[in-house]
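input
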Amino acid sequence: MSMMGLVFVVASASASASASASASAAPAPGSAEIDAATRAAVEATCFDYVDGQLEGDPARVARALHPDLAKRRVLGDTPDERLGLRRMSKEELVELTRQGALKTPKEKWDRSCVVLDVAGNVAAVRAETPWFVDFFHMGNFDGRWVIVNALWYAKPRPK
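output
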């Protein structure tokens, strides 16, 4: 390979790396176009879920969830299952809330709901509390946003 060819290959690779870096820093597709009313409605559902658990209000959590909720946590390989998941239904989550599993004094609430994207009647959302991070898929049914799918991560408890 000639010196000129080598310079061209290096310059092309450098340009590709720069393009990839700036593409990964770009906002999520559609996130800039989310109108304020839609964003507020999606966030309200997220906060019903999060705040309902933190205050121990099962009715508030229940209204945020689709009846056929699929809530899962990655376990990895277990003795019983390859690529294991912890599965939870709407009823189980509401019951855990009723039992006060995540009830937290309000002054210790450190939570957020971030709408990642909305496309028509579906939305992707990230929720975080001191205890967990959830990624939601929400659906809009007759003007009401509800959580259809949730994949969550349990944060390590402080020692």
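quick obs: The mean pLDDT is 81.
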